[in-house]
């Protein structure tokens, strides 16, 4: 099964359904279907979501695409993404992975 690591601070929002997407750069290709999230701090903490679609785009278009322009101006989005990907740029091509609430 395809899988991705996720930082532990985001897990509650994914599990509750508040967060139903992730933005990835230069990671394993993800396709629609089941996907396992693995807690980056605890490999035994996992859960499965159903990926519904994956859109590839430049990072600078992500905030508009997700309807988060006010929350994520370019500098905020870039700073947040650089916590995980220090070399990412606004013109880097990323994958926006959409998923449903975790399967039980």
TrEMBL record:
Q: What is this protein's name?
A: ASCH domain-containing protein
> A Pfam family matched by this chain, by name?
ASCH
Residue ranges occupied by any ASCH domain in the UniProt entry: 5-98
Q: Which Gene3D superfamilies match?
A: Hypothetical protein
What the entry lists under InterPro entries is as follows: ASCH_domain (IPR007374), PUA-like_sf (IPR015947)
**Source species, domain of life:** Bacteria
């Amino acid at each position: 099964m395809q899988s991705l690591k996720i930082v532990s601070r985001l897990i509650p929002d994914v599990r509750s359904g508040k967060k139903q997407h992730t933005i990835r750069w230069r990671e394993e290709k993800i396709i629609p279907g089941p996907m396992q999230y693995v807690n980056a701090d605890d490999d035994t903490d996992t859960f499965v979501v159903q990926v519904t679609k994956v859109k590839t785009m430049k990072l600078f278009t992500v905030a508009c695409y997700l309807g988060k322009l006010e929350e994520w101006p370019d500098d905020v989005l870039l700073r947040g993404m650089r916590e995980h990907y220090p070399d990412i740029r606004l013109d880097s091509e990323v994958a926006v992975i959409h998923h449903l609430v975790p399967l039980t």
